[in-house]
Amino acid sequence: MTDQPFDIWFEKVAGFPARDWQTELAQSETCQDRLIRIPTGFGKTLGVVAAWTFHRLVLQSEDWPRRLVVTLPMRVLVEQTIRVVQRFLSAAGLLSVDAGADVDGEGRGVAVHGLMGGVAAERWHLCPEQPAVLVGTQDMLLSRALNRGYASPRPRWPMEFGLLHHDALWVMDEVQLMGVGLTTSWRLQRLRSRLPSLRPTATWWMSATLQPKWFEHGADASTVDELAQRTLRIDASARTGGLFDIRKSLAVHTIEAANDPKCKAWAELVLKAHVEQEPGEHGRVTLAVCNTVDDASLLYAAIRHRAKDRSTELKLIHSRFRGLERAGWSETFLRRAACTKGADRIIVATQVVEAGVDISAGVVVTQLAPWSSLVQRFGRCARYGGSGCVVVVDRKLSEKRCAPYDAGELEAAADALGDLGEVGLAALEEFEGELESSDPERLIRLYPFEPLHVLQAQDFQDLFDTEADLTGEDLDVSRFIREGDERDLSVFWWPVAADGPPEAGLQPTRDGLCPVPVGRADKWLFNSGRLKEGVRAWCWDYIDAAWQRLRRTDLRPGQLVLVDLAVGGYHPELGFTGKPLASSAGLMVEGTTKALTQAERAELGPAHEELSAYPYKTIATHGREAAEQAERLASVLGLCDELVRALCLAAALHDVGKCHPVFVNACRPEKRDPAMRERTDLAKAPPAVWATGRDLFVAPDGRPRPGFRHELASTLMLFEWLRLIRPEHPALLGPYVQLIEEGIVPAPDAQPSGVSVGQTLASVMSSLSVSAFNLIAYLICSHHGKVRGIWSATPQDQDTTVRSAGCTPIRGVVDGDRTPSLMVSIPKARQELQPGIELSLDPARLGLSGRYGASWRERVNSLIDEHGPATLAFLETCLRVADVRASRLDTGDPLLSAGVER
Asked: Can you give the residue range of the structural domain that contains 342?
């Protein structure tokens, strides 16, 4: 806490005074949606980080969200932004050294996490009550907000989904480059404002060229006007000095692509501009910006072929490089310290340099692009002061060849350039200001925006279900994240032995991943729908938890593809080429794969049980400890008493299904300590006693139960216990008694004689409301993220020979399975022995059940209607976090002493 005003605190931390707009942003006591239109070079990133830090961390205001989510259009900006955030938090004494190590929720400092493919970000979702900064691309963050996290394990999707829609301040940076992602972020914020929520979430949209009209898609005019009134910008009177005084001359050259297919004339123009540039304090640096990776590659090759002075450095950067190569860019040439007096460098780039990259070029030679992109590219010229020169190359592209842009956008930009003699910041601001007052229609043409897809409320609700279909396909969210054909999958190269598929444990780091457009991957790897001769490639099969031979239908955005190193397709200086370059055989791969953590191994497939591999502990004791952790977490988060009670009871009972004979058998009795061999109530057991692979889940009769999930058994036990307590409970058959009497609903099965649930549990469950029972059942079912809103047979279930009266198993559970008696823990009460029971898959059937009433699907839909998809996922996350924390407790178990009931 501090009693200092923001501006004094900021100067003490940053070492220089805050700008007026940064102070204005931090003056609001509450966190609201807003637009931030600030020119490049005026500290947008630092301003938003400082405002959030001051209110959330220094003043500890509960009116400000715990998580700051910085969303960027391109990967190249992520590492740089992370460094800015870390430096500022470190200077404020608030940076956590180990990002998210304190999963008990009692850590000190703020963790900064980069969400990119291949980055091990295991822990951020396990600390929902701790402040954190998340930095990632729009692909990684919006896909998680849509419950389909790219490069994230499927079981983790609901946790990230729930947390990103609660207690989060989203900062959408450089929105002029986001395309449809901008509209999706706007629609998500509108949906959050209408649906039930437990904690506030807000969004700030930032750009030097931001236009309120971009928000007219998916909202009424009054809402957009209200948002526009909260636009933060630099006042006209303050637009003097500093970057506003830098002058940048403008020249436009026409080089028709048809007459220069190999970019020879273009290369000559770049070399001429570079040679004529007077070296300054920051050296001689020329930046050539192209609209596509193909053009950048051609221009780079043409310049290299024609460059007479070999002492001039020549660099190529675009989006199709591995993290290993990108990591060196900021150290060698994409940072201020690299622009020394002796620098002599030509950088050929694509849009990756448009925003946020800390580089200053004396000369910028850019291909004609939409106005918003040109303004950003102009900002890379003379960024550190002095003066500069901008050359715009008009390639006179036909409508069919101007991708990724629209011909109308290029024409409008060319028209604007004709009215300008220089493109310094002051000149651009003056030009746009005049258009705003005298010709607003022309300004709209300069900043057109027409997204192809607008996220609707029903889309958002449909995305709650994370179950893949029988072919392993998922609902495609890429149309809500990026437009056009530039939808990427991730490729990594590794030398794979010729005698079989890669090992399951072979998983890449961020350094090993290269983004490749889906269409380019198709042309590179496939011919007539089949892998080309000599091509060996795989993708991850979640159902079988193994690498499977790549099929053409597996090529989709966000997919992870492993390619044998011998196939080629990549060059460390050129990036992805799609060509079998000989140099790929010597490509550095050390450090591009990782050793998996216990949690990561558990998330590889539906039948992994690594999260049960801990020292021996009973179901009752683990349940009690999980309930205590849930209560502690819920208290910090400020959840209401009703939700706290539901979370605690769900935590206490979440693992009761581990007494199922199939699970008991997975923890091999013959491998256990002698005192443990007869127990059927173990929730945890050491790693060495577990069966592995396809032998993990086998029934006592010796027949395999592949894909068995104990959390489904736990949920079915809950249903059957309530039926034994009170079959006409409102959560079961109570609402349907008349329908049963009229024969519309089948009559319930007779109650088994001599079977009764313990009095304490009976009292607790009997008093539950319908909503509370459904919520508890859902939380128990979903506590690993592998079984949630839909109960359906997997391909493994359909292949098995195990049947019960012709009924296919679901997740390895067979209708009529029996569980033994079991000691369970009840919150705020003593432990109690519950009877052995028979499980029924009745809730999985559509329509009303004569045994339990409403179907599972109907119950989940009612919870979504009551709580909203994001809030239900948030509560799901709370239980899962409590479970993880309880599992890691190094405590004894009194029930493991001799003579205690099993």
From this structure: 247-423
- Give the DSSP letter of residue 751: P
Stronger pLDDT, 99 or 256, i.e. the higher one: 256
Give a yes or no: residue 457 inside a domain: no
Task: Say if CB 779 and CB 876 are below 8 A apart.
Answer: yes
**CA separation for the pair 546, 470 (Å, rounded):** 17
| Confidence band, pLDDT 50/70/90 cuts, at residue 754 | confident
Residue 23 lies in a domain: no
Distances (CA, A) of 639 to 3, 623, 632, 827: 29, 20, 11, 17
pLDDT at 103 over 70: no
Banded model confidence at residue 107, pLDDT cuts 50, 70, 90 = low
- Domain end position, chosen among 380, 407, 423: 423
Rg from Cα positions in the chain:
30
List the beta bridge partners of residue 538: 549, 562
Q: Indicate if 263 and 224 belong to the same structural domain.
A: no
- Give the separation between CA 848 and CA 842, rounded to whole angstroms: 9
| Bridge partners for 685 per DSSP | 613
Non-local CB neighbours of 734 within 8 Å, separated by 6+ positions: 728, 853
Q: Is 753 exposed, middle or buried (0-12, 13-18, 19+ CB in 10 A)?
A: exposed
Instruction: Please give the average per-residue pLDDT across 890-901, as a whole number.
Output: 74
Q: Which of 808, 797, 777 is nearest to 708 (CA)?
A: 797
Q: What is the pLDDT of residues 544-595, one digit of tens each?
A: 778 999 999 999 887 889 999 989 999 999 999 998 765 565 688 887 887 7
Q: Tell me: the pLDDT tens digits for 693-724?
A: 777 888 888 888 888 999 999 999 999 999 99
Tell me what percent of the chain is helix, strand and coil, each rounded to the nearest 5: 40, 15, 45
- Same domain? For 613 and 746 the reply is yes
- H runs (alpha helix) in 537-660: 598-602, 619-637, 641-653
Instruction: Count CB neighbours of 91 within 10 A.
Output: 13
Residues 62 and 207 in one domain: yes
- Cα 141 to Cα 171, 180, 218, 308, 338, distances in angstroms: 11, 14, 20, 45, 31
- Does residue 664 sit in the same domain as residue 802? yes
Question: Looking at the structure, do residues 186 and 204 belong to the same domain, yes or no?
Answer: yes
Cβ atoms of residues 323 and 82 within 8 Å: no
Q: Identify the burial level of 574 via C-beta atoms within 10 angstroms of its C-beta, where 0-12 means exposed, 13-18 middle and 19 or more buried.
A: buried
For the whole model, what pTM was predicted? 0.86
Comparing CA positions, the residue from 449, 457, 528, 531 lying closest to residue 176 is 449
Provide the token pair at 664: 């008991």
Tell whether 581 is covered by a domain. Answer: yes
Domain co-membership, 136 together with 271: no
Cβ–Cβ under 8 Å, residues 410 and 370: yes
Check if the beta carbon of residue 284 is closer than 8 Å to that of residue 424: no
Residues 680 and 659 sit within 8 Å (Cβ to Cβ): yes
Q: Which of 235, 262, 295 is the last residue of a domain?
A: 235
DSSP state of 99: T
Total count of domains within the chain: 4
Residue 479 located in a structural domain: no
| Residues in the chain, overall count | 902
- The answer to whether the beta carbons of residues 127 and 140 sit under 8 Å apart is no
d(CA 688, CA 666): 11
